[in-house]
């Protein structure tokens, strides 16, 4: 078997139909399900109709994750369970909230082979809805692009490593050689930890933004977004309080400079302040544009600054003060 696709699923009845439809549409004359690749969904103790949804799709293997071992996260447990039944020479871990473009599995295998990548990971196009989500997501992804630039992730001489669990393709040999999800069983950010471990073991990485391959709707509600980013931000960014300070400065300058220009008495002072404001606007939007979101969402992101500041602060508190986060009905503690 050339490829095994593994989807960990906990309460994913809303997302799974689109994901499975898009994956099964990959089936083509030269890349056949059951012959060249297999699709496994691992139900992680769902309380909704996740299992019933999967059973509607012929050819998909449905597994049940065992009881969560002490010290494991639910996702690591589900992914590891899938690998124990997998027969593919390559393993693709993808999330239930992803939608795959036609032919992306076969193209990804070719890309990994062409670039001699033991681990290939894609950052999908983000599907967002609602003003608050559209406003804050470009800010987060702009900072992610700065923290994990693909050119450094892909450089074996750089210590920076990254992967996105929404699409993480790894050779079977490399996966088990580094210990797989069992080696990162207690890590909330298991995808980045896997990539870091792979790079430390001198395995080659390839990471890129890939709207040509897949898209994802990470969160359907504002509450889901808050819970998800509260869990992850303090782990993704090594200095979240420094980011808080820089975003407070951005907000202060974007709002404060035109207010100051209104109140200063002299025309030359007004012009000087407005020129500084124009420079700040240019710098800010040039930075946010690296998020790969639309121009409209980047413009809207100014309104998202206060929420982003709060999310960063809250994530830092959860990580370093309360030392615990929650996700999908489970609580995880940081040691």
Describe what this molecule looks like in 3D.
The chain is α/β, with parallel strands linked by helices and 335 residues long. The chain is 49% helix and 16% strand. The chain has 2 domains: 3-124 and 164-220, Spore Coat Polysaccharide Biosynthesis Protein SpsA, Chain A (Alpha-Beta Complex), CATH 3.90.550.10; 240-333, no CATH class. It has 12 helices and 12 strands.
Write the layout of secondary structure elements.
Elements: E1 3-9, H1 16-24, E2 37-43, H2 50-55, E3 60-64, H3 74-85, E4 90-94, E5 98-100, H4 104-114, E6 119-123, E7 125-126, H5 131-147, H6 150-153, E8 167-171, H7 172-177, H8 190-200, E9 205-209, E10 214-216, H9 222-236, H10 240-263, H11 267-288, H12 295-320, E11 324-327, E12 330-333
Parallel strand pairs: 1-2, 1-4, 2-3, 6-9, 7-10
Antiparallel strand pairs: 4-8, 5-10, 6-8, 11-12
Low-confidence runs of at least 5 consecutive residues = none
How many separate domains make up the residues?
Answer: 2
Rough shape? elongated
Share of residues in helices: 40-55%
- Spatially, the strands of the biggest sheet line up as 3-2-1-4-8-6-9
How many individual helices? 12
Structural class: alpha/beta
Spatial gap, N to C terminus: 40 Å
In the CATH hierarchy, the architecture of the largest domain is: Alpha-Beta Complex
Rg, rounded, reads: 22 Å
**Element string (H = helix, E = strand):** EHEHEHEEHEEHHEHHEEHHHHEE
Beta-strand content bin: 15-25%
Total strand count, please?
Answer: 12
Rounded mean pLDDT is 95
What top-tier CATH class of the largest domain fits best? Alpha Beta
